[in-house]
Structure formats: C-alpha cells, structure tokens
C-alpha cells in the first residue's frame, strides 16, 4: 500500500485498488488521483464568489445595521471576522490538496475511523440547516418574481401553515432545482459555479443602483448615524457579533478539504481562497450596508431582507432581474457550501450504502425538516443564537484538526490506513477518546454559557451554565483554543508520526504500537 510523493508535495496511492475492499471506502471518499486534481486559482476564486455572494451573506451586514450599527462598524466587524476565519480554513485546506481526501476522511486521522462520523455529522447537520435557510430565501425570491408576473392571484393565495400555498410551492421548486444539479455530481457543481459567479454580482449591483437613485446618492446613506455610538454600547455587541461573522464560515473552515482535494497545487488553492474570501465578502458587506442604509433613507426603516426590499421596487423589470440574479446566487452558494459537505459526511457514515448523490438528497430532506423559516425570522436569533452557538461547537472540531495535523503529526498521514480497519487510525474500537474529550471541553466552554437578552432569543438571560456566560461572547475563539490545547496535552508523549526512509513516502499517526511485521509501505513508492 505504498504512497507516492510528487515533487510538488502532493501524495497519492501507488495502487489505489488496494483499499477498494475496505468497508470504509467508496468512490466519493477515495483519494483523488493526481491526474484529476485540476482545479486552478480561478476555480477557487469563482467558488468563493459563488458562495459569498448570496442572500444569507447579505443578511450578515444588513442584520448588523438592523441591530444599530452604522456602515463603518458593520464593515469593520465583517472584515475582521473573515480575516480571522481564513486562517484555520487555509490550515485545514492543506490536507485536502496534499492527500486528495475530503473532510470526513481527514477527520479519521484524529477522531478515529468511526469517531470521524461524529465530527462529520455535526458539520453535516449544520449544513442541512443552512441548506434549508438558503432554499427558503430562494423560494421567497421565486414567490416575489411570480407574484409580479402573475398578480394578486399568486401573492394572495390561501394560506397553509401561516404562508400562502404559492410560497410553499416556490420553496419546493427551488429545492427540486438544486437536487437535480447535485444528482449530476461534483463536476456539475463546479461548472455551475464557474458560469454563475459573474451573474451573481450583477444582481446585487442592480439592487444597489436602484437604492442609490432612490436615496439620492451615497451622501444620505453614509450619513446614517450609529444607534450604538463607539462607546460601551458598541463594544458590548461587537464581540458576539464578531463571533457570528466568524461562525458564518466556521463550517467551511472544517470542510474545505472537500474542495481543495481537487487542487492542482497548494499555491493555487491558497491564492484562490486568499483572493476570493476577503474580497468577495467585503464587496458583499459594502453592497448590503449601502442597500440597507439606503432603505432607511427611502422607507424610514431598516429592511434587512433583500427579497422584501426588492418587492417594493416600482419597476417589475427591475424586480424580476434583481431577484433572478439573487436566486442564482443562492443556488450557487447552497450547492457549494451546504450540499457538497453533508453529502460526503453522510456517505462517510455508511460508505457502501450512501453515495454522494444519496447524501445530497438526505441533506435536502433534513433541510426542510429543520424549519429554516424560523431561523431567519429575526436578526438577533440569526446572529446571536444560530451563528454563535453552532460556531462555538464547530470551532472545537477545528481546534482538534489543526492541533493534530500541524503540531502532532506535522502534516504526515498514511492514506491507506485511513481506510483500514484496526490499522493506524483505528485507535480503540475506531474512536480516539482524546479527540472526543478535547472537542467536548471546547464545545462546553464555548456554548455552555449561551444566553439571550430577555425576549430576544431561545436561551436564558443568565446563560445555560451561568458561570460560563462570559465565554459565549467569544464562543468561536474559546472553542478553538480550548480544544487545541486539550488535544495536545492529552496526546503528549504519543507518537504523532513515523520516521520515513530516504525512499519511503509512508507517513502517519499512531495511537498504538505497530505490530512487529514487515511493512509493505517501506517499499519505494
């Protein structure tokens, strides 16, 4: 089961058929052969453009405006948050490009072959929630577009569960369209991202142009005062808001190996992300801030939902064009950020029974069952409850992966062993208790003190665990730092890698002594 290291540092198995018989293997989870690792800097830039330019990204900045920040405060919060989350994202991306493996297989090296399912399903279930949110706002855009084209018979249809039945129909149509694309596989997702990326930007520019005209230019927009000032009232909400901005991409900071496994080099995937994430999110923040602030000038209130704002436009042509572009933006982001990852995650749980396509369908069903319309009903719930809570939990997983890969194993893994029962990554019964303990400590410290202002969220005002309340304002940082430290402390003194000979490409981690036997991987790959 020798593995070959190429001059650029990327590694593949010399004979990939050696792992085909493993019950922890399927074609989607298998290491990508070098000849299929073809994604360029543009592919990753376009991927981020597609993922960042969407309605939930827009809601980050508009939500900050709605809770009282001015344009400068909102832009500062979002920009700093994205620069911070880019660091663990790039650190975890490295393994995908080097070994051609997706996130759930990467997690096996530290959580164990079975334990990786815990980390993967945590990420996957949150992605299902995001898939539902994106699909709901996309369905809302369809509802408004068809309402302008058909008239009151569409918008005034009989209500079912508190919404017009036509709204539910738009939601289901939007859901079905996405399922068709994901059923066609990963290449279809990549092609869709490439050609929709420029169109997405057009939709938001149409929205911005209309608001600028109606508001009388940039002057009135940027003169909107902060309701919080720059004193204690602002800094009180800055920290939890910053954690929310980081948490927005905490999911991708874990599962970027799902995409970087196709990278043609470490340099290209890294530059694609460095150029893609901060720039596209900054653009999205500026557009959202100006549009929302312009809405205050025009309508006297902060309308944080762009679909609702667009529905007030006078011109049906502008309404249809802007919402059509926003709809494409939402599909692009949803496929990349919220379907690809859980598809792999669910497939990892039952490799022989759940394919990438079936995993995508499971994601779609759970995305409906989670009732996403409730999660975006209020900016306080969206930012301080939904984003902050799951961000703290996933930060603990990220802490384990970064500590394990970069510090404990020094980026050395054994590809074949990631699919081998009772091998190097089997630990005890397929679980690495050290990673589980570190994740639990990090998650409890991060979100154990979850609290909400009275009447503004689902948590008690004193926090779930009052003594930990102070950490919830820094949930992502607390979770990542605690899990990172605990994992390294528990793993101290244990071998993180095996020495390699001059001609050997075998690298890895171990939780137990290797059996005394001749290792076939010692043969020159």
Written description of the protein model:
The chain has a domain at 3-14 and 25-376: Hydantoin permease (Orthogonal Bundle), CATH 1.10.4160. It is 65% helix and 2% strand. It has helices at 41-52, 55-66, 71-99, 103-111, 116-150, 152-155, 165-183, 186-215, 218-222, 232-248, 250-255, 257-260, 266-299, 306-310, 316-349, 356-369, 372-375, 379-408, 433-447, 469-472, 475-491, and strands at residues 3-5, 11-13, 159-160, 163-164. The protein has a two-stranded antiparallel sheet. Strands 3-4 form a two-stranded antiparallel sheet. Helix 4 crosses helix 18. The model is unreliable at 498-525 (pLDDT under 50).
Gross morphology is globular
Q: Quickly name the level 1 CATH class of the domain at 3-14 and 25-376.
A: Mainly Alpha
How many individual β-strands? 4
* Beta-strand residue percentage: under 5%
Furnish the topology, listing elements before pairings.
Blueprint: E1 3-5, E2 11-13, H1 41-52, H2 55-66, H3 71-99, H4 103-111, H5 116-150, H6 152-155, E3 159-160, E4 163-164, H7 165-183, H8 186-215, H9 218-222, H10 232-248, H11 250-255, H12 257-260, H13 266-299, H14 306-310, H15 316-349, H16 356-369, H17 372-375, H18 379-408, H19 433-447, H20 469-472, H21 475-491
Antiparallel strand pairs: 1-2, 3-4
Helix pairs in contact: 1-8, 1-13, 1-15, 2-3, 2-13, 2-18, 3-10, 3-13, 3-18, 4-5, 4-18, 5-7, 5-15, 5-16, 7-15, 7-16, 8-13, 8-15, 10-18, 15-16, 18-19, 18-21, 19-21
GO molecular function: nucleobase transmembrane transporter activity
Keywords: Membrane, Transmembrane, Transmembrane helix
Subcellular location: Membrane
